[in-house]
Amino acid sequence: QPTECFLSQPEEKQESTVKAKRRKKKKISDILEKSAPKPGVPADLQNLLSQHFGENRSVIEIEELKLSDSCFLPANDLTHSFSSYLKEICPKWAKLRKNHKEKKSVVMLVICSSALRSLELIKSMTAFKGDCRVLKLFAKHIKIKEQMNMLEKGMFHIGVGTPGRVKALVEQDGLCLNSTKYMILDWNWRDQKLRRMMDIPEV
């Protein structure tokens, strides 16, 4: 009997610690909900790259991965709508769009965390895109072969999609980035779990 009592006590403790952990998680999300969103800056991306590649690469290789400031356009300071932001960073869009003749490529690549978010962004860029063609580059309900066929046969100006599918298309030679002039990262948006795209381990 005493041993049975002894065994039941640690189990109760484990349950209480699990409950405590769950409460802590809720508190973190509450803090995120209340805190004001910060616009992403070039240093955020540089830090992410050095953290990701830091363990496997030498100091020289990490230096080569650093992007110069001239690679970056101003970040959205969160006062713009998506269309007005694109108009500000890409004032010569009409000319770029007309000059784009290459297949298997896009002039602008927008990367975000989910298929639903991709659809939201496509809808919200109507004022900017004009009559140019936009291609959905995510996995939900669309096979990779379909996207590869579309890129090969048609001509698209903007691609909006998720990191996993964009990576797969590039690796399978379905998407060529040589004529891509702009890459927009949907940095500030948070999903239902309040994670940004960069907080998702797979990304």
Automatic annotation (TrEMBL):
Q: Which GO terms describe its cellular component?
A: 90S preribosome; nucleus
A Pfam family it matches: CMS1
Name the segments for region: Disordered: 1-22
Q: Which Gene3D superfamilies match?
A: P-loop containing nucleotide triphosphate hydrolases
Q: What is this protein called?
A: Protein CMSS1
